[in-house]
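User: For a benchmark we're assembling, each entry needs the component sequences followed by a predicted structure for the full assembly. Here are entry 17's components. Please fill in the structure.
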Amino acid sequence: MTATAITTTHFETAAPVIELSGARKTYHTGDIEFEALRGIDCRIYPGEYVAIVGPSGSGKSTLMNILGCLDVLTSGSYVLAGEDVSHMDEVALASARNRRIGFVFQQFHLLSSLTALGNVELPLIYAGVAPAERRKRAMVALERVGLGDKSRNHPGQLSGGQQQRVAIARALVTEPAIVLADEPTGNLDSHSTRDVLGMLDDLHAEGSTIVLITHESDVAARAGTVYNVTDGQFVGTGTEIAK
Amino acid sequence: MRPADLLASSWRAIRSHKMRSALTMLGIVVGIASVVLTVGLGLGTQKDVSEQIAALGSDLLIVSPGSSTDESGMRGGFGSGTTLTRADADALASTVAVPDAMAVAAEKTASVSLEYGESNWTTTVTGTSTSWPEVRSRELLYGSFFTDEDVDSGASVIVLGAETAEELFGTAAVVGQDVTIDDDTYEVVGVLSEAGSSGDTSLDDMAVVPMTTLVEQLDDSGSSESVATIYIKAAASNLLSAASQEAESLLLNLHGIAAADDADFTIDVQDSLLDAATSVYQKLTVLLTGIAALALLVGGIGVMNIMLVSVTERTREIGLRKALGAAPANIRNQFLIEAMILGLSGGAIGVAIGVGLALALPSVLGSTIVISGLALVVSVVVAVGIGAVFGVYPAARAAKLAPIDALRDQ
Ligand SMILES: Nc1ncnc2c1ncn2[C@@H]1O[C@H](COP(=O)(O)OP(=O)(O)OP(=O)(O)O)[C@@H](O)[C@H]1O
Ligand SMILES: [Mg+2]
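Assistant: Structure for entry 17:
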């Protein structure tokens, strides 16, 4: 394991990648309103490794969707890499996701009809990158997660841990401002979990900004900063974990 | 997103669901194949009929006795009157009065029993003049037609239709033989080439004699001057209506009738038969095409139905693509192009099957099927259009899916 020696303090010198102010999200189900986020303020700086923890139903995934530009705030503002995305339309949000965000999902979400390489190429297709360039970059990303030899395998021909590594390669390939991982180890056995978390540690060591959502405290322990969400609010301030 | 990637993405989606894609196409295949067939059948039948009518001579005027003034269809004495005479025919043949007529032949018929040796055959014998082969567009297979001298003298000569000759003589030589009608002997001078049939009447089971011979020896109608029909062949088909007007005014004059509405004869243009037939077959084609269009509509609804299923089934894929940066338009276009590719493939297969059947069926059905290149191109375009039209709604549904809901879908 590497990267444990990386310092996790003094990011404040650079401009934040993520700046949430007074973030509120209200869901409407029929006549019932439910406020899933109740005023969250948060800054995440380049190179930070942040974990978000909290009980089930506390609003972690809601926050993740907001941070990933998959959904918009009811009120408050969200500035992503210097761009105010709070009032963007769907098309602009799609572009922001494509350029700024790399997702890693609990269910991997790989397309079974595509090879590992094809899956990693997907975000570049929507970015309009030409095929040759695309293939080269996707290959580099796959090699980075140690799957250079599995590029032609379809997801069904890969282990769970390998599938999640393909998903990580896909998240990296666009060189996003931030990698968002929602329970990335939720569907993995302990061996694969170690594998994937090691991967994220490596990325962090190489300078990626990572936001990880998790239930498990030992997973959160790897992050530099831990935010605790309860009932749609941060409890206390971000805890910097001394390694 | 690059257009080539959009196409590739749609194509892959179709290929990865072969069975579903095939079922989606099926409706279009059936619809397009039936369009190709019905249009081909309609055009083919029209062609057959046109050819049959054209064979009768499209530059022909048919003058019949009796009036046709009653528009309700009651034709007073039509075809059975005695108002047309041999003198009328002679007058019409004058190049001065009817300059646009090339040839005129009057016809009068009688039913007779022909005998040769042991053979005996009943047929219709037509009395006419020597211009008859030209007017009726008939040719001789053997021998020659009778001459003007034969007509003047009322000679006992006869020309037989091909079928009649075969019935009487079998394969034996015919020209120069004698046949007997009511114990009178007639010399066979010629045999007509085959001409098929016009409606129910065979053009090959007949006999032709000089008008004088018919009137003097065979006709027992009692009116020796009247004729059944006068055929006028126009000098050219574009002179048909001019010839018709000239003939009408001459006959009105000869019959001492002032108003054309009171005419005691009717002039029909062969072309009007053609027009009537054409309009019937155009209606038939429209009807058949309507049925085929219905089949296509059903095919289109099939496309929409299965595309909607596909959108539902691929909700997670749509969510993922959106999360990775696909704009709503990218998703919409992918589904739209999928539907259009299905339409195009279905259309192409349908055209192939339709053409295959069009080539195979005529030998079974005995009817002509005309394969029109335009119809084929239009069919494929229509098939793609159906894919597009019926793909719009499912594609819009896919484009509208919110990425979080789509990703959460199990
Ligand atoms: N689309 C929605 N419509 C209505 N309510 C919603 C919607 N999405 C989430 N919620 C509600 O918002 C609250 C927070 O949900 P969220 O998914 O963010 O929780 P979570 O912290 O991710 O929980 P878990 O750890 O179980 O994944 C929950 O009470 C949930 O019922
Ligand atoms: Mg969650």
